[in-house]
Amino acid sequence: MSNVPNELKYTRDHEWVRVAREGVVRVGITDHAQKELGDIVFAELPANGSGFSAGDPFGTLESVKAVTEVYAPVSGEVTALNDELNDSPERVNEDPYGDGWLIEIKITDKSELDGLLSDDGYESYISQGNE
Questions:
Q1: Number of domains composing the chain
Q2: CATH code for the domain of 30
Q3: Radius of gyration over every alpha carbon of the chain, rounded to an integer in angstroms
Q4: Which parts of the sequence carry N6-lipoyllysine (predicted)?
């Protein structure tokens, strides 16, 4: 079973969201997603200041198996990027909920957080075979 921390919110696209500070969330991919992708060899992230709507693709992760898009879980503006991934993209595999985070977003509509899955909701979602 995948590691699904209970303090996070999740999307059906396998991103996680953690409130980093008031109005700002940190985003990454779940343990389940990194296991499905395999060894990540490259992360393409957006420019700082880029704006996205919830559900928009904001970047890609390239693994030995495939290239997959990652999606903004909430609407807002990118305020920080995990530049460490430029040299060490494998951090996404090693620590998906810690050093493997992708971006931070200043949220434009906090109510969007309410539409995300809880840990139990996400575990149920992946246990039903939703890849």
A1: 1
A2: 2.40.50.100
A3: 13
A4: 65
Q: pLDDT, tens digit, for every residue of 49-108?
A: 999 999 999 999 999 989 999 999 999 999 999 999 999 999 999 999 999 999 999 999
Residue 56 vs residues 15, 59, 69, 75, 127: alpha-carbon distances, Å = 12, 9, 10, 9, 25
- 62 pairs with which residues across the strands? 42, 67
Q: What phi and psi values does residue 127 have, to the nearest 5 degrees?
A: -70, -20
Are 109 and 25 contacting, i.e. CB atoms less than 8 angstroms apart? no
Residue 19, CB-side half-sphere exposure with 13 Å CA sphere: 10
28 contact partners, CB below 8 Å, separation of at least 6: 15, 16, 92, 96, 97, 100, 101, 102
Q: How far is CA 73 from CA 13, 56, 64, 89, in A?
A: 9, 8, 25, 21
Which residue's entry shows tokens 């305020």? 79
Q: Is the pTM of this model over 0.85?
A: yes
Q: Where do we find the tokens 């969330």?
A: 25
Host domain of residue 118: 10-125
